[in-house]
Design a protein that fits this description.
This protein is an all-beta fold. The protein has a domain of 134 residues. 0% of the residues lie in helices and 45% in strands.
Length: 517
């Protein structure tokens, strides 16, 4: 059996449409060769349920998150030397305070965080109005400050870790060795979100967008203390309207940084005495991009070790690929990489999770699934799939593309490996088990209900791993829908009812168990 990857699957009642898969990488950090100054672009924290995970001093990881019941904020640290997590520590707990999410920044071992909270109850759809500013010199001891009014944008932190800033609408809170302090400023026309940076000398830069009749202006107000701020107006190609802004350090900000590499604009300065500039435009606005509007519009793809690629078609039959050059900030001439021979439309092309292989999916003709993949952005391979959705390993390294007679596993190290044995059941689920193996949740027979067994790929086809003890309703399963973006979770529906089950690998063994959570 190949190396187990630890995919997790959830099955439940529901609809008949497969959820989306990710187009371009959301991995923080500029593309190799980017003009984002000579220094490397720092990373954004990694999102985890209810919070973030940061790289702190000595290579350790610090995870800070809101409890599932919203009653507390917790933190724990992973020692880089031993690879083990320490005990969780309570960061924040206040009577009648409910917190649903945490964001943070770190520098020189210190951490600045915002706990997004409300009084009485936390409702995810509502703007939090009782958030807390949190600061720690070491990730272990914490101080807290109540932010008045709406507050949800990430904090900024100085390179020495001693100063921090929490931006709001027309104001911000700073933390220094003297403690927390509130500041107001005139930010007429400010749209949300907003971000702010702070230096070792407590110089604050407050960045926000202002809508124009044609486009958008990015405004930067920079000052120390409560002095009259110096103002800069930077023209950007992207529109306003809740365009995300994220600070990476005291001199670097992204617009649309998390959502899409293709739409990311880099705003930076050489040092605190220098003006802010648009250091790298968003690739979607760069010259040379072939327009395919109203046909097969561009989708943007990348993976570790690959440049940003734009795929589209002017006639829905010939798929064109272009490569983005981040140094020249322009696109290469288009090259035909696939001739479908019939009209196509995009399949599943977006997911919030980072994956390590590039897979672009088309639906051609009568819904025929075609997965296009490349390991070098030059040579491409088309894999014919079935209507059964793909599966992605929990670590993002492997993708399964099921077909009716073969099961294909795509990886960086092996490319495409085609396994004997297809996936034919309406609701069968296949997930990767390393670069050359797969696990299948299926039924042992037409009249035995679904699901009943876990199977593993072999050179001869599928072999049984184990029976399941899951309920098998008398009605045949009718539909499959991804309830998570990477097919780590699924919705499985019967006409009347369904349930949730998780498929896990632990200590080299796969199991499928009903989830009662």
């Amino acid at each position: 059996m190949s190396r187990i990857t630890g995919a997790v699957v959830a099955l439940a009642v529901a609809a008949a449409v497969l959820g989306p898969m990710r187009t371009d990488s959301t991995t923080a950090g500029a593309p190799q060769g980017s003009t984002a100054a000579a220094r490397s672009t720092p990373d954004l924290p990694r999102k985890v349920p209810g919070g973030v995970e940061l790289s702190v001093a000595d290579g350790d990881l610090l995870r800070i998150w809101a409890a599932d019941d919203h009653r507390a904020v917790w933190a724990k640290r992973r020692d880089a030397t031993t690879g083990t997590w320490g005990e969780r520590r309570e960061v924040l707990r206040t009577r009648n305070l409910f917190c649903g999410d945490v964001d943070a920044r770190t520098a020189n071992g210190a951490v600045a965080a915002i706990a997004r909270c409300d009084d009485g109850a936390y409702i995810e759809e509502d703007v939090p109005t009782a958030s807390r500013a949190l600061w720690s010199p070491d990730g272990a001891t914490w101080s807290s400050y109540a932010l008045e009014g709406e507050a949800y944008d990430e904090p900024g932190i100085s390179p020495d870790g001693q100063n921090a800033v929490w931006p709001q609408h027309g104001r911000y809170v700073t933390r220094s060795t003297a403690g927390f302090d509130e500041h107001t400023l005139d930010s007429e026309g400010q749209e949300m979100p907003v971000t702010a940076t702070i230096t070792d000398a407590a110089q604050v830069s407050f960045l926000y967008s202002v809508s124009l009749p044609h486009g958008c202006r990015l405004v930067v107000l920079t000052r120390t203390g409560d002095a009259v701020p110096a103002r800069q107006d930077l023209e950007t190609a992207s529109g306003c309207g809740y365009t995300p802004l994220d600070n990476l350090d005291s001199d670097t900000v992204w617009s649309n940084g998390r959502s899409s590499l293709a739409r990311r604009t880099l705003i930076s300065r050489a040092d605190p005495a220098s003006p802010w500039t648009i250091a790298a435009i968003a690739p979607v606005g760069a010259p040379g991009l072939e327009q395919t509007w109203n046909m097969l519009d561009q989708r943007y793809f990348t993976a570790p070790g690959l440049p940003l690629l734009a795929l589209g078609s002017p006639d829905r039959r010939l798929l064109l690929a272009q490569t983005y050059d981040p140094v020249a900030q322009s696109w290469s001439p288009p090259v035909t990489v696939y001739d479908a021979g019939r009209w196509c439309h995009w399949g599943d092309t977006s997911t919030s999770e980072s994956i390590e292989v590039l897979v672009a999916e088309l639906r051609c003709g009568q819904g025929r699934r075609v997965a296009l993949t490349t390991g070098d952005a030059t040579s491409w391979r088309a894999v014919q799939g079935s209507r059964t959705p793909r599966g992605i390993s929990a670590d993002g390294r492997y993708v399964v593309v099921p077909a009716r007679s073969r099961t294909h596993v795509i990886s960086r190290e092996r490319g495409v490996v085609s396994l004997p044995g297809g996936v034919t059941g309406r609701c069968d689920v296949a997930v990767p088990d390393g670069p050359d193996g797969a696990v299948l949740l299926t039924s042992a027979g037409r009249n035995q209900g679904w699901p009943t067994v876990l199977q593993h790929s072999t050179p001869q086809g599928w072999s049984r791993l184990s029976r399941t003890t899951l309920p098998t309703p008398s009605r045949v399963c009718r539909s499959l829908q991804a309830s998570g973006p990477t097919l780590d979770s699924f919705d499985i529906g019967w006409r009347v009812r369904g349930y949730t089950v998780r498929i896990r690998e632990r200590d080299g063994r796969w199991s499928a168990r009903r989830d009662r959570g």
